[in-house]
Amino acid sequence: MPPFHVRPLTADDTPAYRALRLAGISELPATFCTTYALESSLPLTHISQRLQANRYQIIFGAYDDEQLVAMAGLRREPIAVVHDKASVWGVYVAPDARGKGAGWQLLQAAISHACAIPELAKLRLAVAQDNHAALSLYLRCGFTLAEDAAPLGMLQMQMLLPRPAIAETISKSDVFMKINDLRKVEK
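Now predict its structure.
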């Protein structure tokens, strides 16, 4: 399998990203949370803004030479109670690139990026239960089925990210001191 060049997409990738996303929506409409009509009506400036990486979102692309053949987004929640979770979204591999490792490389880049964010502990995604190729890819990458309820025809998947053990960051004496500092409240 030839290696693909995987990198974060930028505003310069807008036309290629739009074309690939529209192809994906056309082929697998249930996979995307939008319609072809709505997505194709978006101005290029809106799509270009979507591609600007920030602390809450990044979109990766896999290239075969100069051709964008796969894409995947990673989105974190800015809300404090769920800031430890991120969603993998908008994953699509062009038919000609399937089975050649593009999806694997793309997801490995997204997972590596997520692992570099200290507060992230879990990745989530949804996949159509009849999309056996995608389901197989996610399982090979380390995702497992989640118990969360999913919309009809979809499966929720998750991946717990490796994190350093608490013992590595807090010594036993620190824990002991904190416990000893607790005071029983008198009634």
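The beta strands are 5-8, 57-64, 67-76, 85-93, 122-128, 144-145, 154-160.
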